[in-house]
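User: quick one, fold this
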Amino acid sequence: MLRGHQAAELAEHRQIIDSLDLALGAVLQSRAGAVDAVQRDKRRSGLTVRDHSREQEVIAHVASRVPRLSAEAVGRVMTAIIDGCVEASERSAATAGVGYRLRLMGEMPDIDVKAWSNAMATWSRWTD
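Assistant:
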């Protein structure tokens, strides 16, 4: 059983993680919208949807910025994100003809600004 200060610290850490998860959701939403725009441009230009060498460059770049995770772990996460964004774009393109579009760059999820600010301050203390 956790003691009072341990429970409070655990709750604070969980709140930070929850805030970061919301921020990740907002970033993923924006990324999906950007991918949708790129995919539309590619389709108009007759280019292939996937550029695996570009994807590998993106993964390597992100991995170089996340030293706490292994390159393999970052690769798995980024591959899932890339696949999900391309799939969302394909769904958007497939449904555009029937008057329905996925709202990829719509409103961002509500983020508790104070909690986000606290999360960033605490996170920066951990990473310094």
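User: anything notable?
Assistant: Residues 98-109 have pLDDT under 50 and may be disordered.
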